[in-house]
Amino acid sequence: MNDALVQRLRKSLGEREGSSLRRKLVARAVDDARINLADNDYLGLARDPVVVEAGITALRAWGASSSASPLVTGYTQLHQQLEHTLAAWQGYAHGLVLNTGFAANSAVLGGLPKAGDLVLADRLVHASMLEGIMASGARLRRFPHNDLDALELMLHEEPALGGVIFVVTESVYSMDGDGPDLRRLASLRKRFGFCWVLDEAHATGWYGETGSGMQEHQGVLAAADIVVGTLGKGLGSQGAYVLSHASEVRDALVNFAGEFVYSTYLAPVSAASALAAIGRVREMVAERPRLQAMSVEWRDALCAADFAVPTGDSPIIPLILGDSDVTLRYAEALRSSGFMVSAIRPPTVPVRTGRIRISLRRGLDASALASFLSVLKGISR
Ligand SMILES: Cc1ncc(COP(=O)(O)O)c(C=O)c1O
Q1: The domain 49-283: what is its CATH number?
Q2: CA of 378 to the centre of ligand 1 (A)
Q3: Comparing 323 with 80, which gets the higher pLDDT?
Q4: Whose CA is nearest to atom 8 of ligand 1?
Q5: For 151-180, what is each residue's pLDDT tens digit?
Protein backbone atom coordinates (compact mmCIF):
# COMPACT_ATOMS: atom_id res chain seq x y z
CA MET A 1 0.00 0.00 0.00
CA ASN A 2 1.21 3.49 -0.80
CA ASP A 3 3.05 4.78 2.26
CA ALA A 4 2.02 8.42 1.91
CA LEU A 5 -1.62 7.39 1.76
CA VAL A 6 -1.35 5.21 4.86
CA GLN A 7 0.35 8.05 6.77
CA ARG A 8 -2.36 10.47 5.70
CA LEU A 9 -5.14 8.13 6.79
CA ARG A 10 -3.38 7.44 10.09
CA LYS A 11 -3.12 11.17 10.76
CA SER A 12 -6.80 11.92 10.19
CA LEU A 13 -7.88 8.87 12.20
CA GLY A 14 -5.51 9.93 14.99
CA GLU A 15 -7.13 13.37 15.09
CA ARG A 16 -10.52 11.76 15.56
CA GLU A 17 -9.16 9.47 18.28
CA GLY A 18 -7.71 12.43 20.19
CA SER A 19 -11.06 14.18 20.42
CA SER A 20 -13.16 11.07 21.24
CA LEU A 21 -14.67 11.19 17.76
CA ARG A 22 -13.30 8.03 16.19
CA ARG A 23 -16.03 5.64 15.09
CA LYS A 24 -15.74 1.90 15.53
CA LEU A 25 -17.95 -0.83 14.18
CA VAL A 26 -19.49 -3.16 16.73
CA ALA A 27 -21.13 -6.27 15.31
CA ARG A 28 -24.50 -6.93 16.93
CA ALA A 29 -25.21 -10.50 17.95
CA VAL A 30 -28.45 -12.12 16.87
CA ASP A 31 -29.32 -12.96 20.49
CA ASP A 32 -28.46 -9.57 21.98
CA ALA A 33 -31.27 -9.18 24.51
CA ARG A 34 -30.65 -5.57 25.48
CA ILE A 35 -33.48 -3.07 25.11
CA ASN A 36 -32.89 -1.41 21.77
CA LEU A 37 -33.13 2.38 22.03
CA ALA A 38 -30.86 3.02 19.08
CA ASP A 39 -32.29 1.75 15.81
CA ASN A 40 -35.05 3.21 13.64
CA ASP A 41 -37.51 0.34 13.64
CA TYR A 42 -39.99 2.51 15.54
CA LEU A 43 -42.96 0.21 15.01
CA GLY A 44 -41.11 -3.05 15.47
CA LEU A 45 -42.03 -4.10 11.94
CA ALA A 46 -38.67 -5.58 10.95
CA ARG A 47 -39.63 -8.64 13.01
CA ASP A 48 -43.38 -8.46 12.54
CA PRO A 49 -44.66 -11.92 11.54
CA VAL A 50 -46.74 -10.58 8.63
CA VAL A 51 -43.79 -8.58 7.28
CA VAL A 52 -41.33 -11.43 7.70
CA GLU A 53 -43.72 -13.90 6.04
CA ALA A 54 -44.19 -11.57 3.05
CA GLY A 55 -40.42 -11.36 2.76
CA ILE A 56 -40.03 -15.14 2.84
CA THR A 57 -42.68 -15.59 0.16
CA ALA A 58 -40.93 -13.03 -2.08
CA LEU A 59 -37.56 -14.62 -1.41
CA ARG A 60 -38.92 -17.95 -2.62
CA ALA A 61 -40.59 -16.42 -5.67
CA TRP A 62 -37.91 -13.95 -6.75
CA GLY A 63 -34.68 -15.19 -5.18
CA ALA A 64 -32.25 -13.24 -3.03
CA SER A 65 -31.42 -10.47 -5.48
CA SER A 66 -32.94 -8.29 -8.17
CA SER A 67 -29.81 -9.35 -10.05
CA ALA A 68 -29.53 -6.24 -12.22
CA SER A 69 -29.92 -2.49 -12.31
CA PRO A 70 -33.53 -1.35 -12.78
CA LEU A 71 -33.29 -0.33 -16.45
CA VAL A 72 -31.87 -3.74 -17.30
CA THR A 73 -34.08 -6.32 -15.56
CA GLY A 74 -33.89 -5.35 -11.87
CA TYR A 75 -37.24 -3.51 -11.83
CA THR A 76 -39.95 -6.05 -10.97
CA GLN A 77 -43.72 -6.03 -10.62
CA LEU A 78 -43.16 -5.89 -6.86
CA HIS A 79 -41.21 -2.62 -7.15
CA GLN A 80 -43.93 -1.24 -9.41
CA GLN A 81 -46.67 -2.22 -6.98
CA LEU A 82 -44.69 -0.67 -4.14
CA GLU A 83 -44.24 2.67 -5.88
CA HIS A 84 -47.94 2.82 -6.77
CA THR A 85 -48.91 1.97 -3.19
CA LEU A 86 -46.56 4.58 -1.69
CA ALA A 87 -47.71 7.30 -4.08
CA ALA A 88 -51.43 6.64 -3.54
CA TRP A 89 -50.96 6.46 0.24
CA GLN A 90 -49.24 9.82 0.43
CA GLY A 91 -51.32 11.63 -2.18
CA TYR A 92 -48.91 11.74 -5.14
CA ALA A 93 -49.32 10.73 -8.74
CA HIS A 94 -45.80 9.36 -9.22
CA GLY A 95 -43.37 7.33 -7.20
CA LEU A 96 -40.00 5.73 -7.71
CA VAL A 97 -38.23 3.25 -5.46
CA LEU A 98 -34.50 3.74 -4.90
CA ASN A 99 -31.95 1.64 -3.05
CA THR A 100 -31.46 3.85 0.03
CA GLY A 101 -32.66 7.13 1.45
CA PHE A 102 -29.13 8.43 1.10
CA ALA A 103 -29.19 7.64 -2.62
CA ALA A 104 -32.69 9.10 -3.00
CA ASN A 105 -31.70 12.42 -1.43
CA SER A 106 -28.44 12.69 -3.29
CA ALA A 107 -30.18 11.81 -6.57
CA VAL A 108 -32.99 14.36 -6.11
CA LEU A 109 -30.84 17.19 -4.80
CA GLY A 110 -27.79 16.43 -6.86
CA GLY A 111 -29.80 16.12 -10.06
CA LEU A 112 -32.75 18.54 -10.04
CA PRO A 113 -31.15 21.84 -8.93
CA LYS A 114 -28.69 23.29 -11.44
CA ALA A 115 -26.19 26.14 -11.58
CA GLY A 116 -28.20 29.36 -11.48
CA ASP A 117 -30.75 27.88 -9.05
CA LEU A 118 -30.91 28.60 -5.34
CA VAL A 119 -31.38 26.04 -2.56
CA LEU A 120 -32.61 27.23 0.83
CA ALA A 121 -32.04 24.44 3.33
CA ASP A 122 -32.57 24.07 7.06
CA ARG A 123 -29.21 24.14 8.86
CA LEU A 124 -29.72 20.59 10.14
CA VAL A 125 -30.79 18.76 6.98
CA HIS A 126 -29.38 15.27 6.61
CA ALA A 127 -25.89 14.70 5.17
CA SER A 128 -27.40 12.98 2.12
CA MET A 129 -29.31 16.14 1.20
CA LEU A 130 -26.24 18.31 1.65
CA GLU A 131 -24.09 16.00 -0.46
CA GLY A 132 -26.62 16.26 -3.24
CA ILE A 133 -26.92 20.03 -3.03
CA MET A 134 -23.13 20.50 -2.99
CA ALA A 135 -22.80 18.35 -6.09
CA SER A 136 -25.60 20.13 -7.95
CA GLY A 137 -23.80 23.40 -8.64
CA ALA A 138 -26.74 25.42 -7.29
CA ARG A 139 -26.17 28.18 -4.74
CA LEU A 140 -26.89 27.10 -1.16
CA ARG A 141 -28.17 29.24 1.71
CA ARG A 142 -28.96 27.68 5.04
CA PHE A 143 -31.58 29.03 7.44
CA PRO A 144 -31.48 28.48 11.22
CA HIS A 145 -33.07 25.22 12.33
CA ASN A 146 -36.88 25.26 11.95
CA ASP A 147 -36.84 29.06 11.73
CA LEU A 148 -39.46 29.81 9.12
CA ASP A 149 -39.29 33.57 9.81
CA ALA A 150 -35.67 33.42 8.66
CA LEU A 151 -36.68 31.37 5.62
CA GLU A 152 -39.37 33.90 4.75
CA LEU A 153 -36.85 36.72 5.06
CA MET A 154 -34.50 34.91 2.67
CA LEU A 155 -37.33 34.44 0.21
CA HIS A 156 -37.99 38.18 0.31
CA GLU A 157 -34.28 39.00 0.03
CA GLU A 158 -33.64 36.95 -3.05
CA PRO A 159 -34.15 38.92 -6.22
CA ALA A 160 -36.30 37.31 -8.90
CA LEU A 161 -34.02 34.67 -10.29
CA GLY A 162 -33.98 33.23 -13.74
CA GLY A 163 -33.60 29.86 -12.03
CA VAL A 164 -35.61 27.75 -9.62
CA ILE A 165 -35.70 28.18 -5.84
CA PHE A 166 -35.74 24.94 -3.87
CA VAL A 167 -36.64 24.78 -0.18
CA VAL A 168 -35.33 21.71 1.59
CA THR A 169 -36.57 20.47 4.97
CA GLU A 170 -37.24 17.32 6.92
CA SER A 171 -40.48 16.72 8.77
CA VAL A 172 -38.79 15.04 11.77
CA TYR A 173 -35.09 15.77 12.16
CA SER A 174 -33.06 12.66 12.65
CA MET A 175 -30.87 13.79 15.53
CA ASP A 176 -33.27 16.20 17.24
CA GLY A 177 -36.68 14.61 16.77
CA ASP A 178 -38.28 17.97 16.06
CA GLY A 179 -39.61 19.54 12.88
CA PRO A 180 -41.00 22.65 11.24
CA ASP A 181 -44.58 23.84 10.96
CA LEU A 182 -45.55 22.19 7.69
CA ARG A 183 -48.75 24.25 7.39
CA ARG A 184 -46.72 27.43 7.32
CA LEU A 185 -44.28 25.91 4.84
CA ALA A 186 -47.21 24.95 2.64
CA SER A 187 -48.53 28.49 2.70
CA LEU A 188 -45.05 29.96 2.02
CA ARG A 189 -44.81 27.62 -0.93
CA LYS A 190 -48.10 28.92 -2.31
CA ARG A 191 -46.99 32.54 -1.89
CA PHE A 192 -43.47 32.24 -3.25
CA GLY A 193 -43.85 29.38 -5.71
CA PHE A 194 -40.66 27.53 -4.76
CA CYS A 195 -40.11 23.80 -5.16
CA TRP A 196 -40.42 22.20 -1.73
CA VAL A 197 -38.45 19.01 -1.12
CA LEU A 198 -39.51 17.29 2.11
CA ASP A 199 -37.76 14.34 3.73
CA GLU A 200 -40.31 12.30 5.71
CA ALA A 201 -37.82 9.56 6.71
CA HIS A 202 -38.53 9.62 10.44
CA ALA A 203 -42.24 10.46 10.31
CA THR A 204 -43.57 7.54 8.25
CA GLY A 205 -45.54 5.11 10.36
CA TRP A 206 -45.46 7.28 13.49
CA TYR A 207 -47.57 10.19 12.28
CA GLY A 208 -50.81 10.66 10.36
CA GLU A 209 -54.12 8.87 10.73
CA THR A 210 -53.08 6.19 8.24
CA GLY A 211 -49.42 6.54 9.21
CA SER A 212 -48.30 8.15 5.96
CA GLY A 213 -46.32 10.83 7.78
CA MET A 214 -46.24 14.37 9.04
CA GLN A 215 -47.97 15.96 6.06
CA GLU A 216 -51.01 13.83 6.83
CA HIS A 217 -50.66 14.53 10.58
CA GLN A 218 -50.60 18.31 10.08
CA GLY A 219 -53.43 18.31 7.53
CA VAL A 220 -51.31 19.23 4.51
CA LEU A 221 -51.20 15.90 2.70
CA ALA A 222 -49.14 16.10 -0.50
CA ALA A 223 -48.38 19.83 -0.08
CA ALA A 224 -44.65 19.34 -0.76
CA ASP A 225 -43.64 19.11 -4.41
CA ILE A 226 -41.30 16.22 -3.80
CA VAL A 227 -41.21 13.78 -0.88
CA VAL A 228 -38.26 11.59 -0.07
CA GLY A 229 -38.90 8.70 2.27
CA THR A 230 -37.15 5.57 3.37
CA LEU A 231 -38.34 2.00 3.80
CA GLY A 232 -35.55 1.37 6.30
CA LYS A 233 -36.93 3.10 9.38
CA GLY A 234 -40.60 2.96 10.46
CA LEU A 235 -41.39 0.50 7.66
CA GLY A 236 -38.89 -2.01 9.01
CA SER A 237 -37.44 -2.90 5.62
CA GLN A 238 -34.73 -1.49 3.38
CA GLY A 239 -34.74 0.93 0.46
CA ALA A 240 -36.31 4.30 -0.23
CA TYR A 241 -38.61 6.27 -2.49
CA VAL A 242 -39.26 9.60 -4.15
CA LEU A 243 -42.81 10.87 -4.71
CA SER A 244 -43.85 13.78 -6.91
CA HIS A 245 -46.83 15.38 -8.60
CA ALA A 246 -44.95 15.86 -11.85
CA SER A 247 -44.14 12.80 -13.96
CA GLU A 248 -41.02 14.63 -15.17
CA VAL A 249 -39.37 14.26 -11.76
CA ARG A 250 -39.68 10.49 -11.89
CA ASP A 251 -38.61 10.37 -15.53
CA ALA A 252 -35.58 12.57 -14.83
CA LEU A 253 -34.43 10.25 -12.04
CA VAL A 254 -34.95 7.19 -14.22
CA ASN A 255 -32.88 8.80 -16.97
CA PHE A 256 -30.22 10.79 -15.19
CA ALA A 257 -29.70 9.65 -11.58
CA GLY A 258 -26.56 7.54 -11.39
CA GLU A 259 -27.71 6.24 -8.00
CA PHE A 260 -30.68 4.66 -9.81
CA VAL A 261 -29.28 3.80 -13.21
CA TYR A 262 -25.94 2.27 -12.32
CA SER A 263 -26.64 0.11 -9.28
CA THR A 264 -28.12 -3.35 -8.71
CA TYR A 265 -31.71 -2.59 -7.74
CA LEU A 266 -33.28 -3.13 -4.35
CA ALA A 267 -33.86 -6.85 -3.64
CA PRO A 268 -37.48 -7.91 -4.24
CA VAL A 269 -37.62 -9.28 -0.69
CA SER A 270 -37.22 -5.71 0.62
CA ALA A 271 -39.98 -4.40 -1.64
CA ALA A 272 -42.34 -7.19 -0.54
CA SER A 273 -41.55 -6.61 3.16
CA ALA A 274 -42.17 -2.89 2.75
CA LEU A 275 -45.52 -3.53 1.05
CA ALA A 276 -46.59 -5.75 3.94
CA ALA A 277 -45.31 -3.17 6.43
CA ILE A 278 -47.45 -0.44 4.83
CA GLY A 279 -50.47 -2.67 5.37
CA ARG A 280 -49.52 -3.11 9.03
CA VAL A 281 -48.91 0.61 9.50
CA ARG A 282 -52.31 1.46 8.05
CA GLU A 283 -53.95 -0.81 10.65
CA MET A 284 -52.36 0.98 13.60
CA VAL A 285 -54.78 3.92 13.63
CA ALA A 286 -55.68 3.60 17.30
CA GLU A 287 -52.13 2.84 18.36
CA ARG A 288 -50.46 5.91 16.91
CA PRO A 289 -51.75 8.41 19.52
CA ARG A 290 -50.53 6.01 22.21
CA LEU A 291 -47.06 5.93 20.64
CA GLN A 292 -46.93 9.71 20.58
CA ALA A 293 -48.12 9.79 24.22
CA MET A 294 -45.29 7.41 25.12
CA SER A 295 -42.81 9.90 23.69
CA VAL A 296 -44.31 12.68 25.84
CA GLU A 297 -44.13 10.41 28.89
CA TRP A 298 -40.42 9.60 28.33
CA ARG A 299 -39.59 13.27 27.80
CA ASP A 300 -41.47 14.34 30.95
CA ALA A 301 -39.75 11.66 33.01
CA LEU A 302 -36.30 12.66 31.71
CA CYS A 303 -37.00 16.32 32.47
CA ALA A 304 -38.19 15.41 35.96
CA ALA A 305 -34.87 13.59 36.42
CA ASP A 306 -33.09 16.83 35.51
CA PHE A 307 -32.09 15.99 31.96
CA ALA A 308 -32.85 18.75 29.48
CA VAL A 309 -34.78 17.16 26.65
CA PRO A 310 -37.04 19.12 24.32
CA THR A 311 -40.81 18.74 24.32
CA GLY A 312 -42.38 16.81 21.46
CA ASP A 313 -43.97 13.50 20.58
CA SER A 314 -41.74 12.02 17.88
CA PRO A 315 -39.91 8.71 18.35
CA ILE A 316 -36.55 10.48 18.60
CA ILE A 317 -35.52 12.04 21.91
CA PRO A 318 -32.13 13.78 22.01
CA LEU A 319 -30.49 13.46 25.41
CA ILE A 320 -27.88 16.15 24.91
CA LEU A 321 -24.81 15.66 27.09
CA GLY A 322 -22.28 18.02 25.50
CA ASP A 323 -18.69 16.88 25.15
CA SER A 324 -17.90 13.70 23.27
CA ASP A 325 -16.09 12.00 26.16
CA VAL A 326 -19.10 12.54 28.45
CA THR A 327 -21.41 11.20 25.74
CA LEU A 328 -19.24 8.12 25.33
CA ARG A 329 -19.17 7.52 29.07
CA TYR A 330 -22.98 7.61 29.26
CA ALA A 331 -23.33 5.35 26.25
CA GLU A 332 -20.93 2.78 27.69
CA ALA A 333 -22.63 2.77 31.08
CA LEU A 334 -26.06 2.33 29.48
CA ARG A 335 -24.80 -0.39 27.15
CA SER A 336 -23.34 -2.38 30.00
CA SER A 337 -26.62 -2.05 31.92
CA GLY A 338 -28.91 -3.61 29.34
CA PHE A 339 -29.63 -0.80 26.88
CA MET A 340 -28.51 -0.64 23.29
CA VAL A 341 -27.75 3.03 22.69
CA SER A 342 -25.45 4.94 20.45
CA ALA A 343 -23.25 7.96 21.25
CA ILE A 344 -23.93 10.57 18.59
CA ARG A 345 -21.03 13.00 18.22
CA PRO A 346 -19.71 15.62 15.79
CA PRO A 347 -19.62 15.86 12.85
CA THR A 348 -23.02 14.11 12.86
CA VAL A 349 -24.21 16.82 15.27
CA PRO A 350 -22.80 20.31 16.01
CA VAL A 351 -19.77 20.54 18.33
CA ARG A 352 -20.43 20.21 22.05
CA THR A 353 -23.92 18.80 21.43
CA GLY A 354 -22.94 15.13 21.76
CA ARG A 355 -25.96 13.09 22.68
CA ILE A 356 -27.62 9.80 23.27
CA ARG A 357 -30.27 9.65 20.60
CA ILE A 358 -33.07 7.75 22.31
CA SER A 359 -35.21 6.11 19.71
CA LEU A 360 -38.52 4.75 20.92
CA ARG A 361 -40.36 1.77 19.58
CA ARG A 362 -43.78 0.21 19.81
CA GLY A 363 -43.91 -2.31 22.64
CA LEU A 364 -41.66 -0.49 25.12
CA ASP A 365 -43.33 -0.68 28.50
CA ALA A 366 -43.24 1.40 31.66
CA SER A 367 -40.61 -0.86 33.22
CA ALA A 368 -38.18 0.00 30.39
CA LEU A 369 -38.54 3.69 31.19
CA ALA A 370 -38.15 3.09 34.93
CA SER A 371 -34.99 1.03 34.55
CA PHE A 372 -33.53 3.42 31.95
CA LEU A 373 -34.02 6.30 34.37
CA SER A 374 -32.54 4.38 37.24
CA VAL A 375 -29.38 3.54 35.23
CA LEU A 376 -29.14 7.12 34.00
CA LYS A 377 -29.39 8.59 37.50
CA GLY A 378 -26.59 6.29 38.66
CA ILE A 379 -24.07 7.65 36.14
CA SER A 380 -21.97 10.42 37.65
CA ARG A 381 -22.34 13.59 35.59
C1 LIG B 1 -33.53 12.38 7.44
C2 LIG B 1 -32.90 11.21 6.79
N3 LIG B 1 -33.00 11.08 5.46
C4 LIG B 1 -32.45 10.04 4.82
C5 LIG B 1 -31.74 9.08 5.50
C6 LIG B 1 -31.13 7.94 4.74
O7 LIG B 1 -32.02 6.88 4.66
P8 LIG B 1 -31.47 5.41 4.43
O9 LIG B 1 -31.11 4.90 5.79
O10 LIG B 1 -32.61 4.69 3.80
O11 LIG B 1 -30.28 5.53 3.55
C12 LIG B 1 -31.62 9.16 6.87
C13 LIG B 1 -30.89 8.08 7.58
O14 LIG B 1 -30.26 8.19 8.53
C15 LIG B 1 -32.20 10.25 7.53
O16 LIG B 1 -32.08 10.39 8.85
Answers
A1: 3.40.640.10
A2: 33
A3: 80
A4: 101
A5: 999 999 997 678 999 999 999 999 999 999
